[in-house]
Amino acid sequence: MAPEPTITDLEALVARLSAEERARFARIYHLSTAEARLRVPAPMAPWVERTFGSVAQVESQRIVRLSNVVSGEGTLFNSLRARRPVRAALRTGDSIAAELADDPWADPLEQTPEDVFGR
Description:
- With 119 residues, this protein is α+β, with helices and mostly antiparallel strands.
- It has helices spanning 10-15, 19-28, 45-52, 55-59, 93-101, 108-111, and strands at residues 29-39, 60-68, 74-78, 114-115.
- Strands 3-2-1-4 form a 4-stranded antiparallel sheet.
- It has 6 helices and 4 strands, in the order H-H-E-H-H-E-E-H-H-E.
- 35% of the residues lie in helices and 23% in strands.
């Protein structure tokens, strides 16, 4: 059985529509995709592999932009963002201190990805 399509497959799904259906889609939506490229610092690589499976998957990400041309609303989709860990609400000073000890922003140059054009 084929896997269920995801939002990153939307461009291919629209391309398979009939000409009439594509024209109807285009009257309401503007769809574009792009590749986002990042550099993962070596100290961050083990966490990236545990969380996302591979460094390569993080360093090259597919971004889907869908805009409603009628309402002017739009959004960006990135399948990896949905897989990022979500932190529980912090309740006490102790839990905040413990959380901040492992916070990537405590060492952003080593624990956050860098754009290919630099920081």
